[in-house]
Write a structure and sequence with these properties.
Blueprint (H helix, E strand, L loop, with lengths): L2 H13 L2 H7 L4 H15 L4 E3 L4 E3 L1 H29 L6 E5 L7 H11 L5 E5 L2 H10 L4 E7 H5 L8 E6 L12 H4 L4 E4 L4 H13 L8 E2 L1 H9 L4 E5 L3 H6 L3 E3 L9 E7 L8 H20 L1
Parallel strand pairs: 3-4, 3-5, 7-8, 7-9
Antiparallel strand pairs: 1-2, 5-11, 6-9, 6-10
Helix pairs in contact: 1-2, 1-4, 2-3, 5-12
């Protein structure tokens, strides 16, 4: 008695039609007939009453049908248990959403992941960042991956490209990798006058935006630099002075949003991640792939 025979008998018991049962189990009608006869011979009793119009199961056939269903159900449970013992207990499909900017990271990471966990199904969805956030909150995706401009994360100071901020090398802000607007509030500011009307307008608007109009001091670049070296002020000037400032060992250009040209990988999941879970393994692969690609482009 083979498992295929049990499946064939269940099909016949459900459909009560030899041709339809044969089609469902992908064998010929004559082969199905021989299979049922073999079962009856092994069990030693009639299981099916055949007629020109219908197929009926005998009382023993009904009992055997229940046995077949229970046996096949137990077989599937045993298969699943064996797979879990080999690959871990998390046997569900992972849905990963990612933006187009992360399209070089996610598919490659998933390829490596599936090589280690071939039993786990992975579905990848290309979405925009807002949709990823919505789907993650609703539990429609398991992991979201996107690249976010570092300026959005690290700095809320938005200056035109024609303007720069700088301080003395001993200033508390000199060593910061990024700069927040609130960090400037406790320090007074120098402003360098520009001969260009358009740039001067930008300077005035930037000063107002930083809420520093009361501490604004107008002067030429040399006066501003001299005053800066002996104070805790920071200064704003047009980009035409950037070379002079960069070459002065006593001055440091402050990093604002326009000074940061890289992007930050953001990976989020709605799962509790155990140290030995396959989800943690996938998250690590995503991070590693992103780091490898970042190094390759530098």
């Amino acid at each position: 008695m083979r498992f295929e025979q049990l499946e064939q008998f269940v099909a016949l018991g459900s459909l009560r039609h030899f041709r339809q049962a044969a089609e469902q189990t992908k064998i010929s009608t004559s082969a199905l007939t021989r299979s049922i006869q073999t079962l009856e011979d092994e069990i030693g009793c009639e299981l099916v009453k055949r007629s020109t119009r219908s197929v009926k199961l005998t009382e023993q056939g009904e009992l055997f049908l229940n046995y077949c269903k229970a046996t096949l159900s137990e077989l599937e449970l045993t298969k699943k248990t064996i797979k879990q013992s080999l690959f871990g207990r998390d046997q569900h499909k992972l849905v990963i959403g990612y933006t187009s900017k992360a399209s070089a990271i996610v598919p490659m990471s998933c390829g490596k992941f599936l090589a280690d966990y071939p039993n786990v199904k992975v579905e990848m969805q290309l979405q925009d960042e807002n949709e990823l956030t919505r789907k993650l909150q609703l539990g429609e995706i398991d992991i979201s991956v996107y690249l976010q401009s570092a300026s959005n994360v690290m700095s809320d100071i938005h200056l035109p490209d024609q303007l720069i901020l700088f301080v003395s090398k001993h200033h508390p802000l000199a060593s910061k990798d990024s700069l927040r607007r609130s960090e400037l509030s406790e320090f007074p500011m120098y402003g360098c006058f520009s001969q260009l009307k358009q740039v001067q307008t930008m300077l005035n608007e930037a000063v107002e935006g930083l809420n520093k109009s009361t501490s604004m001091k107008i002067g030429n670049i040399d006066q501003v630099i001299d005053g800066l070296k002996n104070s805790n002020h920071f200064a704003i000037a047009s980009i035409e002075h950037s070379k002079t400032i960069a070459q002065d060992p006593n001055l440091v250009l402050l990093k604002t949003n326009k000074d940061v040209d890289h992007e930050q990988l953001v990976v989020q999941t709605n799962h509790h991640v155990n140290s030995d879970s396959h989800i943690k393994h996938l998250l690590e692969l995503i991070e590693q792939t992103a780091q490898a690609q970042s190094c390759a482009t530098q």
